[in-house]
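User: Um, any thoughts?
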Amino acid sequence: MSGLNSRFNLRRNLNKVKRSRQIISVFVKFGLDYLFDRSKINLLVRIHRRPKDYQELSAPERLRRAFEELGPTFIKFGQILSTRPDFLPADFIRELEKLQDEVPPFDSRQAQKIIEQELKKPPALLFKEFQEKPVASASLSQVHKAILPSGETVAVKIQRPDIRKTVELDLEILEDLAGIVENRLHNGWISRPKSIVEEFKKAIRKELDFTNEAHNFEKFRLNLREFDYIKVPKIYWELTTDKVLTMEFMDGIKITEITQEKYQDVFDPKKVAHLGAKAILKQILEDGFFQADPHPANLFVQPPATIIMLDVGMTGHLEEKSIITIAKVLRAVADKDLDQILRGLEDLGIIIQEVDRNRLREDLGELIERYLGRPLKNIKVSNLTQDIFDIMVRHNLTVPANLVLMIRALSMVESIGRELDPDFDLLSTFKPFVKSILWKRYFPLTWVKKGENILANSLELIEHLPQDMADLLRKLKEGQLKFNFEHHGLENLTREINRASNRISFSLIIAALIIGSSLILQQKIGPIIFGISALGIFGYLLASIIGLGLIVSILRSGRWK
């Protein structure tokens, strides 16, 4: 067994070295080798002269092209990076948003083999009809259309063969590269690369578990059941595993294509923009569970204005407390209440360390004055959020991942909305939701409900109090009651008490020596030299030495002042 493990580890290490060479070669090819230590990467690859056309590209373009060439893991990594404007400058974010998650499909025979392995039956027995040509293909999976024996049309999402091994190997290398980049750039244009990779690991592992996405679909179906203009596919759990996801097939037109002239009398783009914004705000500010990647490829439309959610692998979560705080901050912005805004930022976990509050207040005040007087339809959420992130970077503030996902989702919805309707105004849609949240917060029935909870907890405490008191008295009577005391931060006090005790002890010894020596001199006890007791003189001398040492100790400690 140990021999097999050794061969496995050796093969894995060789694969890691081979893949590392490939990754670094691509970065070198696109002129990104300045991210790494030349002396180290020379051990893996030889730096060749770069093609001239790559030298004409900007740094953000070169990074995007490198990610595209490196395949699925890096494409997904780039997409995650594009959601983090607090980590990368705006020009890199804009470029990484262009990353396309479209790759050639893998062989349909492999797809059918995976279905058989996962569902324990061949597709011929599971489906009445199975289309070999996929209807969509992405970096982690591809989708086939099929018909169940019952006649229902379904979409079967199948994970790419061995993609997990590829992703895990790339994640190991990404962790190593993140450490190198962090040491290399320090406070350069990439902020905290190790944190980015850690966040990416969690996100892509969730996305590789199709049962996680299936549960997301079910939750959205439940939360949006009152919205007849939003459709969420039904999940067929008996045909779903962590590598195969079978859901209701829903056809439609990509949301950004409905403005084409041929669909002029088919769709209502303005209504789609308004309803889509209302749906995402409902998810964020009421449910606290939202689609974090409302990309145009993930949203289809059926005539005239019905929106279909197709991919919910990436989601965001907000607690009720955070939602209420966000509503308070938005109201404080309208009231120009900078103190309330700062308190809200602390409650949201954005201010977690000491900052120059005066400078931060000035920057926030200037930002509010810049935007507050404008008509809402003239304010782009993407520009506003970028200005906010600039302030955060300037003051070294931290943005929790859930808030970044929320802002990212809102920016994408606004971008799609303005494409559908040039007069689209996302901020106006916010107002009724903010009012509703704050009204519910302070609505009498809310306080009645809180009062009921407090009363129930109090009654439970009173109910158990007699028994708890009886147990306490019994333990006290039987001598079983024990108290454990712990002190925190008292080490200095303990040390000072010990030092003072030692000095008092030495002082008493010195006093005893002086008194004893005086009595010896008076009585002339012991050897007499020149008519004086030698023992008494020795006592005085010893007291002087100890006393001098004590004085020096006190002076050195500075406690004499």
